[in-house]
User: Fold these one by one.
Assistant:
Number 1:
Amino acid sequence: MSDYNFAYLDEQTKRMIRRAILKGLAIPGYQVPFASREMPMPYGWGTGGVQVTAATLVPDDCLKVIDQGADDTTNAVSIRKFFENTASVGTTTQTAEASVIQTRHRIPEEALREDQILVYQVPIPEPLRFLEPRETETRKMHALEEYGLMHVKLYEDIARHGHIATSYAYPVKIEDRYVMDPSPIPKFDNPKMEMAAIQLFGAGREQRIYALPPYTKVVSLDFDDHPFEASKAPHPCALCGATGSYLDEVITDDAGGRMFVCSDTDYCETRRAQGHVGATQTEEAA
Amino acid sequence: MYVAVKGGERAIDNAHAWLAEERRGDQDVAELSIAQIREQLSLAVNRVMAEGSLYDPDLAALAIKQARGDLIEAIFLIRAYRTTLPRFGSSKPVETGAMRCERRISATFKDLPGGQVLGPTFDYTHRLLDFKLAAEGVAPEVPERPAAEGPVPHVAEFLNREGLIETAPAEDTPPPDLTRAPLEFPAERALRLQALTRADEGFSLGLAYSTQRGYARNHAFVGELRIGQVDVAMEVPELGFAIDIGEITLTECETVNQFKGSRTEPPQFTRGYGLVFGQSERKSISMALVDRALRWEELGEDNVGAPAQDTEFVLAHGDNIQATGFLEHIKLPHYVDFQSELELVRKLRREAGAAPMQEAAE
Amino acid sequence: MTPLLSVRDIRKTYGAHIGCTDVSFDLFPGEVMGIVGESGSGKSTLLNCLAGHIAADSGQVIFDTRAEGPQDTLTMSEPARRMLGRTDWAFVHQHARDGLRMGVSAGGNVGERLMAVGARNYGDIRHQAIDWLGRVEIAEDRIDDRPTTFSGGMQQRLQIARNLVTGPRLVFMDEPTGGLDVSVQARLLDLLRSLVRDLGLSAIIVTHDLAVVRLLADRLMVMKSGHVVETGLTDQVLDDPQHAYTQLLVSSILQV
């Protein structure tokens, strides 16, 4: 792959993307249009995140790529390989070691630091899209802060189900100004978004970049009498015993057997290496 | 004991190897050459060039081979390659009036200067499977005559002489570039045409067909359809004048559509326009119909709410590379979002189940 | 007294065709102005120009805003105008489906304007929605139903509730009883009259139905071919029409 520039994209394109990122950081939560390039992976498979990562990486970076919280899911492997080939940067699966983390659908359990960048892959950047399909109209709604419709959706949820029935891609308001889609992370991860690291969001197909500087105020939309709740399966991890981490449900047999394990594989492995043990392990030992 | 699934990397490598084997197929059958694809599957090559936005028959043929004949996959390969190419400059507008036509027909006039030239078309073939082709096919002798001399004037120009058809004022501002700037709305006609010429053929066809069936009907006649070669000229700054850098085959379709006018303004026919790389007849006619439908606003027509009138709808969904990527991404793992939905549904079901019992207890 | 709305020389043309021209009037707080005329007279064009739905070619629409006093809404910034549109102004469309969200429950429809101006307590919003549904005679147990399941008259009443919930100071109504059965019209008119009286609403009502203005309007403006041909107190205009066209309008009603 030596025919390609460092991190695949040519320098002109990277500059264009960096300008969009800087603009995004200057106006947190605002969706900056950018001339997304065709990447050698399909739209919808992380082309926005990949372009943001490509424009962000420098040769001494250490990159971690996760999908659904795991380093070993096929798409994470594919993207990590892409940057190993085109940028020859170091890669890692350990959250603490990484300087840039590209993610799809999760925020790592371990708190991130000021010297880290978290890059999200975003399928639909527009939080108002499913309420109003027209781009010209949604841009106007953002410009004029007309967000009443967003709460109508939440109102309807409560009226029908007794609860806000949005469990992922839960909309947030940034610094009391822009309503933003946090990408399809579970709402369990929403409170983590007020963090020390820089957060960058790339939507390739929809040609949008947005960003959150460190310690930006991020509020999940709710009602005073139906406050936002970060929820997860009410179990400890079966492998490491963690009680505060987001869990995947794994079907273990065809008789309804199932277990819950950390979705963040690095977090789970680190805990197990430290000697933490979950219910399955103890049973086996016994 | 349960262990988290590992080995994504090995699985990917193995899948790629298997794919390569499947692509080759039975080793006892001779391998396809790029030249064979380019020469014998030329309409597939044309489509890949048109929707890939890159005029290079050899690369398109290679992409078709690599994609196992999946044309959208081939278009994707071409697009991904195209985006990495440096841009040296832009050509002068091509002169389709000077096209060396191999096909040129008009549905609006029986005969006209330059003549009706049927050319290599499927139009009047009977769609009967030709089993002779299954054996060794030898091309028949084709009768030849020298090409007519001189340029072939556009049909629209004849109508224009009487003021019967709208004219577009000459425009020298460079058109926007969809591949270098984010698509923003409202989109002007130059940008719409750019998006349409590389839009998916099936999508364009469906939309165009819908206008014929009454979803923003605009009564199109094919004023002219021409296919042939045009020269591509480029101004080289060091030289100070334009030189021909090559020749490409294009399909151009101009439709003559329902007229507009009022008591004070004399009625005139309006136009739709399609221009596509290679011999891509169906696509260029579709493009012209959709172009015309999208012009409802400037022509003072009613928006009847038809899909083909909706610029945002058409432009946002016509690109098959964007569409196929997003459609197929739902194959990727979504178990984190699915898990949160599971939790929610279980919780809501618990509460819905508990409520009647509670009522009964009271 | 400062007029709530002061309209000066509004003109709107469509090519060579005049939509409306030379329209000027003042509307004082608590006053209801009726605009009558047959279809094509320019009354709906005028209403849409006043409400900012279509851009007038020239003229002024000066509204006495709460914060900054009289302001020309035609030259106002779009954010300010849209803000006005969801706070102090309300617009009741002839067809309820143009003014409602058909995919959202009745409660959500009424609550939207409250949420748009910052209401964030579900219980309060719901409480107000129930209150307003009651005022427009829609049963409380229909609060979670969508307007698609409502009759035409109910949809229109829901649209009115949705508009009035934020206590607007000026209501524009475009043929509010049009398209409804006669018996349903009567009930709606009755409701509108009591709302106008109880809330002291200021309103501009466009209609071709003289019975509507007879019941609701303090003053009347008669339009023909884009021009105002006669103005005056409602009873005065209807009982003693001066302009030949008004006489024709009134007599055609009386003959029925």
Number 2:
Amino acid sequence: MSIPSVQTPFKRFISEYVERKTAVFAFLLLVFVLLTAFLGPFLTMQNPYDLAQITIMESGLAPGAESIDGNTFWLGTDDQGRDLVSAIVFGLRISIMVGIISGVLAVVIGTSVGIVSAYVGGRIDNLIMRVVDLFLGFPSFLIALICLAVLGRGADKVVLALVLSQWANFARIVRGVAIAEREKEYMDAARGLALPKSRIIFRHLLPNCLAPLIVVATMNVAFSITLEASLSFLGVGLPITQPSLGLLIANGYEYILTGKYWLSFYPGLSLLITVASINLVADRMRDVLNPRMKK
Amino acid sequence: MTLFLIRRLQQSIVVLLVMSFVVFAGVFAIGNPIDSLISPEATEQEREKAISQLGLDQPLYAQYFVFLKNVSRGELGTSFVHNRPAIKLILERLPATLELTVAALVFAIIVGIPLGLLAGLNTESLIGRGILSSSILFFSLPTFWVGLMMILLFSINLGWLPTTGRGETVEIWGIHASFLTLDGLRHLAMPAVNLGLYPLALIIRLTASGTQETIPLEYMKLAKAKGLRRRRIIFIHLLKNIMIPIVTVIGLQFSVILAFAVVTESIFAWPGMGRLIIDSINLLDRPVIVAYLLVTVVVFLIVNILVDILYSILDPRVRLGGM
């Protein structure tokens, strides 16, 4: 006699997710990218920014060339003899860290503002939403550019610029959901128990508003990574001491006319793989989580 | 309609004032521009003289009022670097940027709508799935990197297209345009396609999902039952109804593309305002930064109002009225 297996929502989500092969592949790719970013720097053949470990003798080598001590530069070296694989791994970590930190901060701030705005309502809600409208009225790239024009370069400033350019999105989404949730019976029950306001908002209302956020928040990390790369490429993002993928591509740009294409090609390819895997995973998650897409 | 316009203009002016203060106060906070303008060997007196000439010795609020007064006269200050009126510098470059933006949008629309229709009508086939998957890829492509790769492929390896500049331009109504000469078009092609990839992906997805949602509707079945030709059903009954969300998104995307033109212009050395703003940020050329931002805000506000009006024309159910 077999016991019918109980399907938890999470298990159902997994089993539906794996139906599409490309989505599974994208997930594995994402895991690989994340592992590379966080463990990779311990495994690369050199620390590309430790001047003692690089030599000018090995500068400008094409992909596949051999180093003096017998290793292989699979993706070549730059004009200072830096192994490009190592540089990409180190850059990937910076890009992903900036993307995740600013993505999470934007979600936390946007969600808090949105939910408080919905719960409090009235004039404060109105005022907050005006500010949100002001932010949403401008493309996030422009907001980030203004911030960095004002603040100058630096990792902390880039994170601040990315958060400022994204939070309003989340405030808008969460407020919409929270206003619908506010009228439901469990909220009446929570209010009837005379629980403190903060407890009602963060323990009762908040968890029920999170579902629609998961997909947007995931895509937002990918968007933040691209945005940071674009800003760093333009020379207004991260400083040279924190070479993210965007800066690597910018450095490679100078050599593209002299035929050293690998210096900008491979960092960009890494960026593309990172962003595309996140977007593909998020896309599949949306299909699975959205009941309207079901047949 | 008139009431709507008046209200929107009022709102726009408020937004503009708020933005001008935020921008001015923010821009004021960045480092002292005098350091990058005067040679380090300048004497103390020369330094003082330059500071008072540029009005940098006044307190912040005084500088803002002087600024507002000048703005109302259409003067946004003189560029520290170019020593010319900042607003002139920006307006000179605005047409090039607008041309690039419009060209990118036109590319996205012309290619995107047919591909989206194709994908929406054949969701299960290989073509449809392929188009939709590659549109996600387009979303993920970093614009600036694609630009570099296009230069690598089409200019360096194949030698088909020039890498930089606008090429030969023709003057119409006092504005230089590249799209009317063959040389100009060759220069315009790569930047426009580069900038248009993101809206292209968006339009493909919107058209495809709109098509999918519309096909099972009653009026589509009726059209089919009446024995209308397939071409007529698709282009009249289907396309007309899915155009509303597409047009809205195109309008909203206009400002996004206008902002992202900064990136494309830097790569292809397109002489628009985007390149100017990056140089100005690096040189702390405040008047130009402020002028750029204000001009951009004005363009956005105008585009947003136009989109609202267009929306009400396309969908009579939308009333503009009092809001």
